[in-house]
Amino acid sequence: MARNNTSRTLAAGEMLPKDIQKLAKRMSKKKSSSSSARKSPYSGLWTFILSIVSVIYVIPIILVFMNSFKKKVFINKAPFAPPTAKTFANWDNYISGVEKIGFFSAFINSVIITVGSVLVIILCTSMCGWYITRVKTIFSKCMYYLCVFSMVVPFQMVMFTLAKTSDKLKLGNPWGIIVVYLGFGAGLAVFMFCGFAKSIPIEIEEAAMIDGCNPVQTYFQVVMPILRPTCISVAILEAMWIWNDYLLPSLVLDKTKYKTIPIAIQYLKGGYGAVDMGAMMAMLVLAIIPIIVFYLFCQKYIIEGVVSGAVKG
Q1: CA 184/CA 73 separation, integer angstroms
Q2: Residues 184-198 pLDDT 10s
Q3: Is residue 240 within 8 Å of residue 123, measured between CB atoms?
Q4: How far apart are CA 102 and CA 259, in angstroms?
Q5: Domain extents for the chain?
Q6: Distance between start and end Cα atoms, the chain
Q7: Rounded Cα gap, residues 229 and 184, in angstroms
Q8: CB within 8 A of 94, min separation 6: which ones?
Q9: pTM for the full model?
Q10: pLDDT tens-place string over residues 160-188
Q11: 275 three-state secondary structure
């Protein structure tokens, strides 16, 4: 389709023509709903086996939930027994745990770190993956292989250097640790975004450029909607890791001022191995509820995004 004003650039706030927007949305829906995998003749058997495996994984969560409503004396005596009238502790464990560890302050810190880190990782790594896919230079190839190599390096090899560097750069706060998580989470995210971006037809981007889009507008108005399944998959994987992470915040954060939920829960351990099991079980339930709810809302995209990012291209 010919254009007379090919050199025109879109003004700030100006949207793409409707035909390009419809094409980008169609590509996004096509990639998010496509399921070309053939059914295996053993699908019923695999469903049965994986259902049993799922139940095995869910059992510990059920036990934690049951024990959170039991008096701490009976948790050690009968950890697998459901609460009874004699062992039921009402909401005492939850109230005690919230008061002892300062749960709401730790919850706010965890939310700031998790949400901020996930947003920064998605924005930066999706742009990086798109750049690596479209710009074929030695620099882009080296950048890609460095990101892949970062997934292989064990965390224990860099943890002491990381703690020293973050202390010198004053990153021991909820905003500074976001930079650290960006560095450690970029490898997997760039790998997935590169794999998915290779499957995006370059003609869509060329059409947007003909209509006056600069690279930034092309990315946000055309590429980003198509990358939505991979963005959600990366968000789920990174959010589960960051929310539950204990080691990295314990090395970087100033624990006298800032505590995440995993760090705060550790303060329920007393001297000589004494542990308030009732309060700990209650706090574990409160800690896993947000990430489970987030996963249930987004889980339909995770397998599709992982497969698209790892296989295509």
Answers
A1: 41
A2: 989 999 998 998 888
A3: no
A4: 9
A5: 41-89, 91-311
A6: 28
A7: 22
A8: 68, 279, 282, 286
A9: 0.79
A10: 888 889 889 988 899 999 999 998 989 99
A11: strand
